[in-house]
Amino acid sequence: MHSTLFAHVPVESTGRYTLQNPQLLKADLTQGGGAVLARQGAMVAFEGQVDFQSQYKNRSWRNVERMTQERLELMKCKGQGHVYLANFAQHIHVMDVGGGITVDSASVLAFDSTLGVGIVAVDSAVGIASAGAYNLELTGTGKVALLTSGEPLVLEVTPGTNICADADAVIAWSTTLRTQMQAPTSTSGVWRRKGATGEGWEMQFQGSGYVLIQPSELMPPQHIRGGAFGFGLRGNSMGGSRN
């Protein structure tokens, strides 16, 4: 049997996470780092003896989710084998968490169970599609696989620079950054995507770190009303992952 399909075979590696192609990730559970926490339903195939469990969340964590509506339903993947993960053919990017990142839960595919997980408040009455009212904060030592719609752009923020991005295109940023929502237009213009320009809320980043941008914007909910400008981000993180 001959076909060009047979060129698409598993990529061999000894790493914890290996991209099979831009939209498909292999997680090696035999490597160090404990279990892998992945989006529920993200498994497309697996090899070996792998056990899938719904991720335990304590009462405090569930209370925070209920108040914030920031939910990431996870499954714990553990055992001896490989798990192949994907999400609607989105592009996947693996990175070390390092000093910590803030990310929208919709953009998380999988991460090491050794990482700490918290929910960070965006002090705004405005529900923004990507930079929502609440985001996840991942901290500690480990890796995370992020999702983007298309190939992303990484912008470095340094002291003295003025980096702004459409809030609907922002995927993640370093927790070391100071952030602020802004809309350089009238309030009524914001809800119309700045009138004739088609633009809406922007995020301003200051400090030292990085911002991940995707080449896709989600329109904000049309039922949103009210709000003000100059909202600061960052709040108290709560909850965490459990091995």
Question: Main traits of this protein?
Answer:
globular, eight-stranded antiparallel β-sheet, Double-stranded beta-helix, six-stranded antiparallel β-sheet, 243 residues, mainly beta, disordered C terminus, 41% strand
What does this structure look like?
The chain has helices at residues 59-68, 187-191; strands at residues 17-21, 24-28, 36-39, 43-54, 74-85, 91-96, 101-103, 108-112, 116-121, 134-139, 143-148, 153-157, 163-166, 170-174, 178-182, 202-206, 209-213. The chain starts with 16 loop residues before the first strand and ends in a 30-residue tail after the last strand. It has a single domain (4-213), classed as Mitochondrial biogenesis AIM24 (Double-stranded beta-helix), CATH 3.60.160.10. The protein is 6% helix and 41% strand. Residues 123-131, 189-195 and 219-243 have low confidence and may be disordered. The strands form three sheets. Strands 1, 2, 3, 4, 5, 6, 8 and 11 form an eight-stranded antiparallel sheet that branches. The chain has a six-stranded antiparallel sheet with strand order 9-10-7-14-17-12, with helices on one face. A three-stranded antiparallel sheet has the order 13-16-15, with no helix packed on it. The protein is built from two helices and 17 strands. By secondary structure, the chain is mainly β.
Topology, element by element:
Layout: E1 17-21, E2 24-28, E3 36-39, E4 43-54, H1 59-68, E5 74-85, E6 91-96, E7 101-103, E8 108-112, E9 116-121, E10 134-139, E11 143-148, E12 153-157, E13 163-166, E14 170-174, E15 178-182, H2 187-191, E16 202-206, E17 209-213
Antiparallel strand pairs: 1-2, 2-5, 3-5, 3-8, 4-5, 6-11, 7-10, 7-14, 8-11, 9-10, 12-17, 13-16, 14-17, 15-16
